[in-house]
Request: fold
Amino acid sequence: MKKYILVVDDSLTIRSSVEYVLKQAGYNVASAVDGADGLTKLNGITSSGEGVSMIISDVNMPNMDGITFTKSVKSGSFKSIPVLILTTETQEVRKQEGKAAGAAGWLVKPFQPEQLVTVVKKLAN
Ligand SMILES: [Mg+2]
Reply:
């Protein structure tokens, strides 16, 4: 069974760079453009019999933001999937919102590739 890391970000640049770093580190990567698309991709991957090891999500996105997306993931059948928030947001209040939503970690952009891989290795199921 293939296991994926799902990257959810409205920025193509971020999606591409995260995807590049993770693929270099040996992970399979799927991506989504916002939280709503993230839920669709999550359902699509799992219904095809494959698994999602973890999710890396932006906060500020159209349609469904990363906090709402995380809440939705963590309150349904995907609640065992760790969610790492990757954002430009540094405010403590936002971090607390992420934590309350069920996020396992919070990483601030721009990220260092080695730092991202270290966190992913720690969190991925
Ligand atoms: Mg964004």
